[in-house]
Amino acid sequence: MAHSAQRAGTLCGPLERGGEGPVRTAAQQLECQAGDLERIGPQLAEVTKSAYIWKDQDFRMWLAGGIGFIAGAFLLALLPRVLPFSADSRVAALIMGRDRINAAYAMIDSVDPIGVKKLQWGAGFYEAVAARQ
Questions:
Q1: Which end of the chain is more exposed for a tag (fewer CB within 10 A), N or C?
Q2: What does pTM read for this prediction?
């Protein structure tokens, strides 16, 4: 930018010293500055265009992340229902961070705490009988 100001001074300087009237000199200086502005204009347009591109790209990235998050939550809720055999209980145990038996106890406990106590008592009774034989 400083280079263009020096260049404008060298181009417009001799015209000013030519002895012409102040109005004509001012008009010529204005023309020189307008020429500089025309040269700088496309550069400024490129800078602002790249800023708009970054802004648009940020929006697209946030949009893709949001859609991915929603799709992941939807699949997490829907996927165990369509998985074959016992994969649904394995997925539930994996999500809960427990083994399959304790994950099942936790899910049943959220609905019927007394039922879980009965199941645990029955499991303890079964293990005791199996140990005697």
A1: C
A2: 0.35
Compute the distance between CA of residue 98 and CA of residue 10 in angstroms, rounded to an integer: 80
CA distance 45 to 48: 5
Q: 60-104 pLDDT, tens per residue? A: 889 999 999 999 988 877 876 777 777 777 877 888 888 888 888
Reading the block at residue 112, the tokens are 């019927």
Per-residue pLDDT of 8-26, as tens digits, reads: 455 555 554 555 577 778 7
Question: d(Cα 91, Cα 83) in Å, to the nearest integer?
Answer: 9
Q: Is residue 63 part of a domain?
A: no
Phi-psi region of 85 (alpha: psi -120 to 50; beta: other; left: phi over 0): left
Query: Taking the alpha carbons of 54, 56, 62, 65 in that order, is the dihedral positive or negative?
Result: negative
For the chain, what is the domain count?
A: 1
Token pair, residue 38, equals: 């025309």
> Is residue 6 included in any domain, yes or no?
no
* 3 in any annotated domain: no
Is 79 part of any domain? Answer: no
CA atoms within 13 A on the CB side of 111: 5
